[in-house]
Amino acid sequence: MAAISAIVEQIIDGAGFVLMPKLMDAGDAAFARARALEVAASPAASEFGRRNEKIGQQHIRGLLAHGEIFERLVQHPAIIEIAEGMLGDDMTLGAYSARILHPAATEMGVHIDYPYWAMRGPFALRPPLMVQVIWMLQDFTEQNGATLVAPRSQLRCARPNREEFAREAIKITGDAGDAIISHGLLWHDTSQNHTGEPRVALLINYGLKVIRPLDSEIAKVPAAVLERATPKLRQLLGLEFGKSLARDLTRGGLY
Ligand SMILES: O=C(O)CCC(=O)C(=O)O
Description:
- There is one protein chain.
- The protein is an alpha+beta fold.
- The protein has helices spanning 4-13, 26-41, 45-48, 68-73, 77-87, 162-168, 223-228, 231-236, 241-250, and strands spanning 17-20, 51-52, 57-60, 92-101, 130-136, 147-149, 170-172, 179-183, 188-190, 199-207.
- It has one domain: Jelly Rolls.
- A hairpin with a 4-residue loop joins strand 2 and strand 3 (57-60).
- 2-oxoglutaric acid is lined by residues 99, 113, 134, 147, 188, 190, 201, 203.
């Protein structure tokens, strides 16, 4: 892996994203994909993510309630190292979900990520408020709804412009287990799924600890998961917020 500082620089001041190859092995990717599709087809989908028929997409939230594999993946050491390089080692989880593009799904619409879209602006590149991870749970191809991004668009620090995005966007294809890690201000979208198979991605939103999580499901963590949570998972869930503030104060945070 390239030096963390070079990766962070690429995400903030360069293309706005990096494609990290093979961070998850193919077996884990296939297992996580199958599990996401299982939840999507079960009665739990009414609580965790109904299908949006207009665009043919389904967004399954609250993954920490849906299997041990999701606990492991959200703490993947390489992802954590990069995200913490941008947000600090007290960052927290803002959302954790799977996005399913069913056959014939259309674009979701170009956007920047939470919390930026919920803010009035003006936006600033630094400090980054949020880092998004889009983890490919299967190969992302030209045909199956691979993510579209407009390289360097985070530098504009602005809401997306549809015409400019249509001119500048590139499709990020890759293999199962690859991850796109991006600045929350990067303009991006899904593309259309022209295949007969659902395209599934794992989406992680890591944020500064002072940002309110986007997803209320993030708090719906089963007791058993909380009992076995590692210190890192506890941090991600915001359970170490008090300790982190105490550390800020020790560093002279009030003055
Ligand atoms: O699934 C993708 O390719 C991107 C999804 C996305 O950007 C989002 O849900 O915010």
